[in-house]
């Protein structure tokens, strides 16, 4: 499921969730070796292991079609990444929307914002919203989409 989500393989996601529907909402275990290739996961998993949903992983990797497919099947767009550090402390808070904004995946941000269940104002550690993350990294299209949707909602 991790590979299908990170590769945006909708056909494999469909096959796997038809075999085990619980995978749609499952927190998938990730190690640093799984996540060390991307800035979001590096920021989250430094020194520990984490869990994330298939939706979060697809958003992080920029797979808008997979995000739309997962949301259409009822995946929760507001679940966050959780990382357990070497000290055992649990940190969480960054949602799929945070991940997409950090990475600059505007097509994923758009897909997430089409789902009214996605929380625009969810706050990660430090009180940062997805809009903060987009602005900090200069991803103005992501920020524009969030601000427009915020006015609409």
Task: Write a concise keyword list for the protein shown above.
single chain, 10 helices, 153 residues
Characterise this structure:
Helix content is 52%, strand content 13%. A hairpin with a 4-residue loop joins strand 3 and strand 4. The chain is globular and about 40 Å long. Helix 7 packs antiparallel against helix 8, helix 8 packs parallel to helix 10 and helix 9 packs antiparallel against helix 10. By secondary structure, it is of the alpha+beta class. It has 10 helices and 4 strands. Strands 1-2-3-4 form a 4-stranded antiparallel sheet. About 10% of the residues have low confidence.
Structure described in brief:
This protein has 153 residues and is an alpha+beta fold. Helix content is 52%, strand content 13%.
Compile the SSE list and pairings.
Layout: H1 2-7, H2 10-19, E1 28-30, H3 32-35, H4 39-45, E2 48-52, H5 54-61, H6 64-72, E3 80-85, E4 90-95, H7 96-103, H8 106-113, H9 130-136, H10 140-152
Antiparallel strand pairs: 1-2, 2-3, 3-4
Helix pairs in contact: 5-6, 5-7, 6-8, 7-8, 7-9, 8-10, 9-10
Mean pLDDT: 85
- Poorly predicted runs are 33-38, 43-47, 86-90
Largest sheet: 4 strands, antiparallel
Secondary structure class reads alpha+beta
Rg result = 14 Å
Work out the strand percent.
5-15%
Helix percent reads 40-55%
Apparent shape: globular
- Terminal Cα span: 33 Å
By DSSP, the count of extended strands is 4
Largest sheet, spatial ordering of strands: 1-2-3-4
Separate helix tally: 10
The SSE string, one letter per element, is: HHEHHEHHEEHHHH
């Amino acid at each position: 499921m991790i590979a299908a989500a990170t590769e945006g393989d909708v056909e494999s996601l469909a096959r796997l969730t038809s075999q085990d529907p619980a995978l749609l909402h499952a927190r998938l275990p990730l190690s640093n070796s799984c996540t060390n290739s991307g800035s979001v996961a590096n920021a989250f998993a430094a020194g520990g292991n984490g869990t994330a949903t298939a939706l979060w992983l697809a958003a992080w990797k920029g797979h808008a079609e997979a995000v739309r497919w997962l949301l259409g099947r009822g995946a929760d767009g507001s679940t966050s990444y959780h990382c357990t550090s070497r000290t055992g402390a649990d940190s969480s808070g960054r949602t799929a929307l945070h991940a997409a904004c950090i990475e600059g995946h505007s097509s994923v941000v758009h897909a997430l914002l089409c789902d009214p269940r996605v929380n625009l104002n969810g706050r990660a550690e430090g009180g940062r919203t997805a809009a903060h993350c987009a602005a900090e990294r200069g991803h103005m299209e992501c920020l524009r989409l969030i601000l427009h949707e915020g006015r609409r909602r």
